[in-house]
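Our consortium's second objective concerns turning raw sequence data into structural hypotheses that experimental partners can test. To show how far this objective has progressed, the report includes one record in full. It was chosen at random from the queue rather than selected for favorable results. The single chain below, 220 residues long, was entered without modification.
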Amino acid sequence: MERRYGLLLILLLLLTGCTFEYNVEITKNTVKEDNIIFLPGVSQDSIERSVNNLVNKYTGPTNSLGLYQSSVINRNNTFGMSYQKNYTISEYNDYSLSFSQCYDLYKMIKDNNKIIIATSKEFKCFDKYEELDSVTINLTTDLEVESSTADSVHKNKYTWNINRQNYRDSEINIVLNIDNDFSEKINPSINPAVLVAGVFLLLIIIILVLRVIAKKKNKV
């Protein structure tokens, strides 16, 4: 039986001391997946070869994993490799194994005006791989987020930080509203009538202040 590996799982197996991020960007119809692995102490010239050797150790050549677009990146003078792949919503649910590798239950559902990602509670990869220390999952979206279990939120990026202390209670759960986007939520449209009323009130206040000042001058 053919075994399929998600790139997330493969990178989780790499050397202790590396930094791993799994980044997912979701729009109404597409999902962009970005797997980033940093290896401290590895030069820019050798980073691609080093990561390829580590992946090959567990599964075979990196090009056997599918059509990932790879690039060398530099963060704070530490070099790493980024592996990106784009999916439709249905393709991501069927072919990306990133969440399902580490959770007993996983689903991504597009239903009417909702996109829902949900997993079971326990992040299983810590039990499977003793090399693994921590994982950061970042989900970015231009859609309105109705609810989530994220550990932190910065603008439209939702982050889960999973480690050996909290992995038994680290479910991924997020509900997106397709009909509303992030910009509408952060910068809601202003009712013209409210705007006019506000300007009118401001003018009245300015006129009253000027009259008070004029009266004081006349008394003097």
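The partners drew two points from this record. The longest helix spans residues 192-219. The CA atoms of residues 145 and 153 lie 11 Å apart. Both points have been shared with the crystallography group to help prioritize constructs.
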